[in-house]
Design goal:
The protein is α/β, with parallel strands linked by helices. It is built from 20 helices and 21 strands. The protein folds into three domains: about 1-135 and about 330-360, ATPase, nucleotide binding domain (Nucleotidyltransferase, domain 5, 2-Layer Sandwich), CATH 3.30.420.40; about 135-325, Nucleotidyltransferase, domain 5, CATH 3.30.420; about 370-590, DHBP synthase, CATH 3.90.870.20. The radius of gyration is 23 Å and the shape is globular.
């Protein structure tokens, strides 16, 4: 039985296909259209999923949408009527998409796919919960979902057991932890639904100066993690902005302009909202444990991508084990919607564990044959070396040990926002200049953004205070004290972004300013070729990890095709590209210094 799940029309549209409960394929639309966070109907992602399984639309049992548009529309109308006439501009801006697209989904699906079967609708947070529980390795678990808003729910606690999944408690709009965090994202000058990672990365440079004000004035937080927002500080319900004038008065003036300097205020605001968010997550996790009695926790929703908060929940010891959906945001809702129908409506069994979980390493996107890659390279006039897997690994390990930056394009593309070793840019974590080189000459993004380590699973404890697997780069943990570097008096006195200049450990490129790291553990089961590369680097250097960042530049999605990867390689400071079995080095063509020739938001991918 083949079930197709779809998410669309908010952000991160995606499609996912399951067959008898097994995940066959999943991908975000942005990877095909090259429009970051593309919200449009995921035609390309749907076509990929069907092609991957060798199916036609008529082979589908049903198509499932990840939320219920009419219920959401009811909430929007009720909100606008309740704030009238102040919401009229926002209302008029929103209505065309609703009246032309969102309320006509069965017709759009039938027309776009040539599909004549049933179209079903799951609830938004049901989709998130299903995406978290059903692919997890647990036979029973508490399920926590946290995001901006679905139909009405913004936050739920559920319980999964066997093939059953039940939502037990919820918090409803307009009270939303996701929208609260997004309000601070906007206020610190970053883009909502995209810049939340930047707030999380900026937080360690600040102090929680405003945390008390947030909890005293804005958030009425209860011991069980439930909360209510003082809506006078916000404008998201009625207007076109996230925050109100009262918010500006509380925090000393208007929001930072997107191109404005980052000041002490923004650093302290980021640290403050991060600490408040972590406290809410911890309290909700404790309450979920009390309500369900389970020692396992599954998480999804956009806030579950806050890997610092996830790490805090883990360290509190509330649960024995935690599993977080790698595509925790709206993209993962497509997968959850399909799984919810298979297990709920169809009564389908959960397939056997495929390794540590049923997510298949989240390597669920397109892959390209050696012949396809070869034909592309020939078409652009490239003259690569073709190597065996063993030789490719050894050569790339040599380059990385020499301090070169390598683009690594292999196998199936990752589903979710993290590159996990198939669409990655890699570097030497021991280098004191690698973090700034990657940020400024390759990623073209803010200098304070940290990079993640891909560490051999069995070596994780040698570098980090983490004793569980973290295959999806969704947990932050402290760097072990033994490898930290003592700071001199002058270094210790540095403040703000000046702290970037200080190496803090023997792996400075992946050690954040607060001596933490966002960790990806690598084992043989999920990704043997990538594992072999990290092992080869360890043989040369004694260092069992690599810098791993997503294969893209600021403002663009992660690369999908060989053409995307080659275009990114050509216009950045990468030294080499491993494109399937083919190795290309810029030095081979007489040049080693490559600077970006386009604006940060442009796309040169074909």
């Amino acid at each position: 039985m083949h079930i197709l799940g779809i998410s669309a029309y908010y952000h991160d549209s995606a499609a996912a296909l399951i067959t008898d409960g097994e995940i066959v394929a999943a991908a975000q639309e942005e990877r095909f259209t090259r429009k970051k966070h593309d919200h449009n109907f995921p035609s390309h992602a749907v076509n990929y999923c069907l092609q991957e399984a060798g199916l036609k639309p008529g082979d589908l049992e049903c198509v499932v949408f990840y939320d219920k548009p009419f219920v959401k529309f009811e909430r929007i109308l009720e909100t606008y009527f309740g704030t009238s006439p102040f919401g009229i501009r926002s209302f008029l801006k929103a209505m065309p998409l609703w009246l032309k697209k969102k309320l006509w989904l069965p017709d759009i699906i039938a027309e776009d796919l040539g599909y004549e079967g049933p179209v079903l609708f799951a609830e938004h947070h049901e989709s998130h919960a299903a995406s978290a529980y059903y692919p997890s390795p647990f036979d029973e678990a508490a399920v926590l979902t946290i995001d901006g808003v679905g139909e009405w729910a913004t936050n739920t606690i559920g319980s999964g057991s066997g093939t059953g999944l039940e939502i037990l408690e919820e918090i409803t709009f307009p009270h939303s932890l996701g929208l609260l965090y997004s309000a601070f994202t906007h206020f610190t000058g970053f883009e909502v639904n995209s810049g939340e990672y930047k707030v999380m990365g900026l937080a360690p440079y600040g102090e929680p100066t405003y945390a008390v004000a947030i909890l005293d004035e804005i958030v009425d937080l209860k011991p069980d993690g439930s909360y209510r927002l003082d809506l006078s500080f916000f404008d998201f319900a009625a207007g076109l902005k996230m925050t109100s004038r009262r918010f500006e008065r509380l925090f000393g003036g208007p929001a930072r302009a997107p191109d404005g300097p980052i000041t002490r205020r923004e650093m302290d605001l980021a640290r403050s909202i991060q600490e408040v968010t972590e406290e809410i997550m911890v309290r909700q996790a404790r309450h979920a444990r009390e309500v369900t009695g389970s020692r396992n926790l599954c998480m999804a929703g956009g806030v579950a991508l806050n890997c610092v908060g996830n790490g805090r929940v883990l360290r509190e010891g509330i649960f024995d084990r935690i599993w977080i959906q790698p595509a925790a945001g709206d993209a993962g809702g497509a997968l959850g919607a399909a799984l919810a129908v298979w297990h709920g409506r169809e009564g389908g069994a959960r397939p056997p564990l495929a390794g540590r979980d049923r997510q298949k390493g989240s390597l669920l996107g397109p892959e390209f044959s050696d012949g396809e890659i070869s034909a592309f390279l020939e078409g652009v006039g490239a003259r690569p070396e073709r190597l065996s897997d063993d030789d490719l690994v050894e050569r790339d390990a040599d380059l990385l040990a020499e301090g070169r930056v390598v683009g690594w394009f292999q196998g199936r593309m990752e589903f979710g926002p993290r590159a996990l070793g198939n669409r990655s840019i890699l570097g030497d974590p021991r280098s004191e200049t690698m973090q700034s080189t990657m940020n400024l000459k390759i990623k073209f993004r803010e200098s304070f953004r940290p990079f993640a380590p891909s560490v051999l699973l069995e070596r994780c404890g040698d570098y980090f205070d983490l004793d569980v697997e973290s295959p999806y780069m969704l947990l932050v943990a402290p760097v072990r004290e033994e490898i930290l570097r003592p700071l001199g008096d002058a270094e210790a006195s540095l403040d703000g972004l000046d702290e970037l200049r200080v190496p803090r450990s023997s792996i400075p490129a992946v050690t954040h300013v607060d001596c933490s790291a966002r960790i990806q553990t690598v084992d043989r089961e999920d990704n043997p070729l990538y594992r072999a590369l990290v092992e080869a680097f360890e043989r040369r250097t004694g260092c069992g990890l690599l810098v791993n960042t997503s294969f893209n530049v600021r403002g663009e999605p992660i690369v999908c095709t060989p053409a995307d990867a080659y275009a990114c390689f050509e216009r950045t400071g990468m030294d080499a590209l491993a494109l399937g079995p083919f190795l290309i080095q810029k030095a081979d063509r007489g040049g080693t210094t490559w600077e970006r020739s386009r604006s940060p938001g442009s796309s040169g991918a074909s």
